[in-house]
Amino acid sequence: QVILEESGGGLVQAGGSLRLSCTASGRILSTYGMGWFRQAPGKEREAVSTIRWSDGATYYADSATGRFTISRDIAKKTVYLQMNSLKPEDTAVYYCAADRFLRTRWYNPDEYEDWGPGTQVTVSS
Q1: What is the pLDDT of residue 1?
Q2: Strand (E) positions, 15-57?
Q3: Strand-strand pairing, 3-7 and 58-60
Q4: CA of 85: how far to CAs of 11, 47, 72, 123, 124, in Å?
Q5: What's the rounded Cα separation, in Å, for the pair 29 and 51?
Q6: Backbone angles phi, psi at 89, to 5 degrees
Q7: Do the beta carbons of residue 118 and residue 94 sit within 8 Å?
Q8: Rounded to 5°, angle at Cα 96 from 50 and 24
Q9: What number is the average pLDDT over the span 97-114?
Q10: Is the pLDDT of residue 89 over 90?
């Protein structure tokens, strides 16, 4: 089990940027995947991006590809999500999540055991 805490959310105009951070307390094993999900009002929770802890391999949803970048700092046990060219449709609560044994279904929230409380991202027109 790891305890996750997000930070970096806020209000930004369309076209702007934000960097989200997720800091983990506890041991992150080599089999872990650390991911970002988001949920807008009235919509399902959806995957944004995941990074494989062992080698830094990354996975992106179509909505994030080319605009968002996920990265990790092993020493700080922190995962980042750099979000550029933000759009109003990016508005959501963003959650950090940990999958203890990352497999091919990185996009499935049911695979993730630990979740942070979320941070609000609001993109205005």
Answers
A1: 86
A2: 18-25, 33-39, 46-52
A3: unpaired
A4: 14, 18, 21, 10, 12
A5: 13
A6: -70, -5
A7: yes
A8: 100
A9: 95
A10: yes
Annotate 63-73 with b (16+ C-beta within 10 A) or e (fewer): bbeeebbbebe
Can you read off the two tokens belonging to residue 125? 């027109």
**Both tokens assigned to 80:** 């980042």
Phi, psi of 110 (to 5 degrees): -65, -20
* Beta carbons of 34 and 98 less than 8 angstroms apart: yes
Identity of the amino acid at 59: Y
The pair of three-digit structure tokens given for residue 28, joined into one six-digit string: 């992150």
Q: What is the pLDDT of residues 19-76, one digit of tens each?
A: 999 999 999 999 999 999 999 999 999 999 999 999 999 999 999 999 999 999 999 9
Q: Which two tokens stand for residue 53?
A: 């802890």
Q: Yes or no: say if 39 and 45 are a contact pair by the CB < 8 Å rule.
A: yes
The 10 Å Cβ neighbour count of residue 4 is: 21
